[in-house]
Design goal:
CATH architecture: 3-Layer(aba) Sandwich
Number of domains: 1
Oligomer: single chain
Largest sheet: 3 strands, parallel
Order of helices and strands: HEHEHE
Strand content: 15-25%
CATH superfamily: NAD(P)-binding Rossmann-like Domain
Radius of gyration: 15 Å
CATH topology: Rossmann fold
Number of strands: 3
Structural class: alpha/beta
Distance between the termini: 31 Å
Helix content: 40-55%
Shape: globular
Mean pLDDT: 94
Strand order of the largest sheet: 1-2-3
């Protein structure tokens, strides 16, 4: 809970104290959405993080904070993996979300490898 949940809470609350407008993009985990074997504590922390940011989506108007929650499935963070999202692809997706000037923003999305 300390590293997965409270760090996100403290950082976001600190940001709100010094920034009146921001685009917040969270890379949470698909573990927040469903339970997995041998993953109870991590999944619970990620579910708490999801709930926190979804609550903030209701507390703040998008004109102030556009909050996007991403729930990627497997990410190849330990090197190449055949059935995982490439970190560079995820980074490009996040950058595109951060830089878009569209009249909309993405609130919640689950990302799966091909």
């Amino acid at each position: 809970m300390q590293s997965c949940y409270f760090s996100a809470v403290y950082m976001t609350r600190g940001l709100a104290l010094v920034t009146s407008k921001a685009r917040i993009i969270n890379i949470i985990s698909s573990s927040a959405l469903a339970a997995h074997k041998n993953n109870a504590a991590y999944g619970a922390a990620k579910a708490a993080e999801m709930h926190f940011f979804q609550s903030l989506q209701h507390e703040f108007k998008p004109e102030r904070y556009q909050i996007t929650n991403l729930y990627p499935s497997d990410i190849a963070s330990q090197g190449p993996a055949p059935n995982a999202i490439k970190p560079d692809d995820l980074a490009q997706f996040v950058r595109a979300q951060a830089e878009t000037a569209a009249s909309y923003y993405l609130r919640d999305a689950t990302l799966y490898p091909r």
